[in-house]
Amino acid sequence: MSIKQGLKAGVEWRREVTRFFRFGIVGLSATLLDFSILTGLKFFFGWPTLPANLISYSCGMLDSHILNRHWVYPETKGQRSHVQLFRFIFINLVGLVLNMVLLLGFEVIFNALMKNASYSYIPAKIAATGLVFLWNFFANRFWAFNPNPRPEKIVTPSQIKEAEVYERTAA
């Protein structure tokens, strides 16, 4: 590896670490909004967990999309926004399903462990959110906000040899 390639790799690595931390900050913002709305709907209005979580998660998802598009992945703003939005929504719908399943599963566990079971949704939500965060980061990085949506075709050594033989016979 040349010095130039090494420096470029270092810059790329730092850029990805910065991106991961920004994604985390955006996720924290969305999570705080999500938790606040969930708690408000359950505590003040007595909503059941699933409908309250659906509303709160959706608000966090909207917050996340806006901040991701403009701050975490600004180089992708030139891409077709409707395609990017569709992918983002799809990833987050999968995340929502994961969040719901994990939330209900963890809530059952924490109901059994806690003295006041009416607050078991809080540690359950924390655990579910942590796992869904990883899904969201990698799916968004490599699909929704991928700056190179069409990767270059990988050419195998046997394909190179076939092309060389074809060029010699065609000439």
Helix content: over 70%
Number of strands: 0
Q: Output the helix-strand order.
A: HHHHH
Low-confidence stretches: none
Mean pLDDT: 83
Radius of gyration, Cα only, in angstroms? 22 Å
Shape: elongated
Tally of contiguous helical segments: 5
Outline the biggest β-sheet: none
Strand content: under 5%
Distance linking N and C termini? 36 Å
Task: Give me the secondary-structure category.
Answer: mainly alpha
Index terms:
171 residues; mainly alpha; elongated
Structural features, described:
The two termini are 36 Å apart. The protein is 80% helix and 0% strand. It has 171 residues and is an all-alpha fold. The radius of gyration is 22 Å and the shape is elongated.
Can you summarize this structure?
Helices cover 80% and strands 0% of the residues. It is mainly alpha-helical.
Note the topology.
Elements: H1 3-43, H2 49-72, H3 81-113, H4 121-144, H5 157-170
Helix pairs in contact: 1-2, 1-4, 2-3, 3-4
